[in-house]
Amino acid sequence: MTSASKISLNRRTLLCGAASAALMPVVGFPRASFAQEDVVKIGFLAPLTGPVAAWGKPGLDGCKIWADWMNEAGGIEIGGKPHRIEFASYDDEDDAGKARAGATQLIRESDVKFIMMLGGNSWPGVEEIAARQGMLVSTLLPSDLTPNTETLIAPCEVHPIYNVTGVDWLAANRPELKTAVICAQDDALGKPSVATYLAAFEAAGIEVLGDPLFFDPATTDFAPVMTQLLAKNPDILCLDTCYADYVHPLCEQAFQQGYKGQIISCTLDFYQRIVERTSKEFMEGVIFQFPDFDDKALNDPRINFRKPNDFYAEYVKRYGATEWSAVSWEYSSIMDLWADAAQRAGSVEPADVLKAMKEGGKGKHAFGEARWWGKDLFGLDNALVGDWPVVVIRDGKATIAEFRSIPDWWDKHGPLLIKHMTDLGQMWSQRT
Amino acid sequence: MSDFLLQTAFNASYAASYMALIAVGLVLIFGVMGVINFAHGELYMAGAYAVVFFYAGLGLPFIVAVAIGLVFVGCLGMLMELALFRPLRTNPLGGLIASIGFLLMLQTVAVLGFGLRNQNVPPVSQGRITVGGAFLTYERLYVILATVGLLLALWLFLRKSKFGWALRACAQDREAASLQGISINQTARYAMFIGAGLAGVAGALTAPLVAPTPYMGHTVIVTAFIIIIVGGIGSLEGAVLAAIIYAFVHTFVTTFFDGVIANIVGLLLMLAVLVVKPQGLFGVRERA
C-alpha cells in the first residue's frame, strides 16, 4: 500500500511537473513582457506558394528573424510603451483576386497597421481597398506606384531601375562587350525590366540584337528559347527579371548549348544550384543585383541594415544556405524603416508612419542614405532610391563588386529610361 | 544556319520523345478501358518525384530510380483501375470524374511530402554530343534512346505476345474479347500498369531536366490530349507520329517566332486535322 501511494503521489507530482514545464514558456520566463493590447500586427501579403514563392516565402522567413530579434530586445517603443511585433501572413499566390481577399482579411480580422507585398500581378487586387482604408502598403515593385494610391510605397527595392547599375558596371569593366540579347517572361515583371535594360544598354553604347524575346510564362522547355537567343551570337546574354524557375533552366541551356559569353540577370536566386548544374567556370563573372548578406562589404558604416552578417548566419542556421533568395532581407529592411518611422511618429497609424517615413524627402535605405523619388516615372515620389550593389559570381560565390548610384545614372540618362518605358507601355499613365 | 536548324531538331527530338511516351500511355488506357484519364499528367509528375526521392534524396543510381519510378507509377495505375475505374465501368463519365479527384489527391500528396518549391535534381551527366555547332546533352539523349527502346518493346509486346493480342482485342471490342475468354479485368489492370508506367518513366527520365513541381502535370496533359486527338484517339502509331509532328512544329515555331504563337499553331494543327480527318491521322471512323 505504502508503495502504491508513493507511486500515485509520484505520478501526480510528475504530471504537475510536466504541466508546469509545458506552461513555462508561456507564463514563466521574464524577458520582455507585453500586455495583450501592446501588440502591433503587420500584414505579410505575398506569394508563399507557386512559381513566384521564391520572392515571398524567404522574405517571411527573414521577417520572423527580424521579429524575434526585435521582440527579444523589448519590441518597438510607441508613446513610451514597448510593443511586440507580430506578423500575420496571407499567401496571395501572385494572384490579384487572392490578394484582394488577403488584404481584406488582414485589415478587418487581423487589424494590421501596415501591409508588405511583393506587388506586381497581385497589386491590382489590393489597390482599391488600400486607397479606401488609407492602409500603408509597401511593394517591392515600384512599377505599381501611381498617384492614385498615395499610401503605396516602394521603400526597399526600386525594381527594375537598379538594374542600370549592373549594366553600367559591366560597360565600365568589360568595354570589349558590344552586343546583347534579352529575354523575359511576358508579364508585369518582365516588361518594365526589359525597358530598363534597353535603356541601360543604350546608355552604355551596347547594341541590343533584335527585339527582346518575351516568352510565355507557361514555358517548361527553355532549349528553343536559348537556341533562338544564341543564334544571334551575342557578347552578353541578359536574363532580365526572370523568375528563379526560369533563370535556372535558361542558364543550364546556355551552358549546354555552348555559350561562353557574359551573363547578366536581375536575380540569381539559389545560384548554388545553377553552379552545381553547370560549372564554376561557366558561372564565373555572372552579374546580378542581390548579395548574400555574409558579404563583408555590407559591414561598411553607410549600410543601414542591422547586423547583416549575423542576419545571414541566423537565416542559414534556421533555413539553410540554399534557401537564401533576393528577398530574404528585403521585407526585414522595410520593417527597419517602418519601425524607425513609427517610433519617431509615436504612432503606428498608417498616415502618421508614412508622414514620419518621408520627412525631409530622405530615408535610411538598407544600402545607405537615399531620397524619396519617382515623380517622373511613377507620378509621385514614393520610391526610396540610392545606391545599389552590383554582385558578381566569383569562384562560385556571390560577391559585391561595387555599390553604384541609381540617382546618378538617372540624372544622366533619365530621358532614355522614360523613352523605353513609354515604348513598352510601362509609364504609370499608360498602366492606369 | 545549318547548326541552328540542327540544334532546333535536337530540341524537338527530345520534346517528341517524352511526349510520345506520355501520349502512348494515355492512348493505351483509353483504348482498352474507354477512360479519359485526366490524372495522366500527375502520373508523369509521380514518376519525376520518384527520381527526386530515390536519386536526389537517397542517392540511388539514376537508372535504378527510373526503374522504380516506372514500377511505382505502374502500380499506382493498377490501384486506380482497381479502386476507381473498375467500379465505375458502367458509368461513362465516372472514370473521368474519378481521375480528376485522383489528380488532386496526387498533387496534395506531392505538396505534403515534398513542399511546393521546384525540386533540384542533380545532373545525371554533363556530357554532350557535338555535331557541327549543335549540342545534344547526354541527359536529353538518354530520354530519346529510352523512348525508342520502350516504344519498340511495347510494339513487339503488343504484336508478338498473346497478352498483347488480348490487349489489342479489348481495345477493338471489349465484349467480343470477353466472349473469346479474355479477362477484361486482368487486361484493364495490365493496360493501366503499362499506360501509367509509360507516363511515370517519362517523368522520371525528364526529372533532371525540368525541376519537378507538384503541378507539372498540367502542361503535359493538355499537350497529350492535343497529340492523341491529332493522332487518332485509340491509335498508338498515331500518338507516336502526332507527338513527333507536334513537337517539331511547336519547337520550330517557338525558335523562329515565340512560344505563344507556337501554342496557337499547335491548336490550329489540331483544328485542321479535325476538319480534314475528324477521326485523327490514324483513327478509325466510327460506324453509324
From TrEMBL, chain A:
Pfam families: Peripla_BP_6. Residues 1-35 form the signal peptide. Residues 40-394 form the Leucine-binding protein domain. GO terms for biological process: amino acid transport. InterPro entries: BCAA_transport, Leu-bd, Peripla_BP_I, TAT_signal. Keywords: Amino-acid transport, Signal, Transport. PANTHER family: LEUCINE-SPECIFIC-BINDING PROTEIN, PERIPLASMIC BINDING PROTEIN OF ABC TRANSPORTER FOR NATURAL AMINO ACIDS. Belongs to the leucine-binding protein family. This is ABC transporter substrate-binding protein.
UniProtKB/TrEMBL annotation, chain B:
GO terms for biological process: amino acid transport. It comes from the Bacteria. It comes from Pseudaminobacter soli. One of its GO terms (molecular function) is transmembrane transporter activity. The chain crosses the membrane at residues 12-36, 48-80, 92-116, 141-158, 190-211, 223-249, 256-276. It is a multi-pass membrane protein. Belongs to the binding-protein-dependent transport system permease family. LivHM subfamily. One of its GO terms (cellular component) is plasma membrane. Keywords: Amino-acid transport, Cell membrane, Membrane, Transmembrane, Transmembrane helix, Transport. Its main location: membrane. InterPro entries: ABC_transp_permease (IPR001851), BCAA_transport_permease (IPR052157). It is found in: Cell membrane. This is Branched-chain amino acid ABC transporter permease.
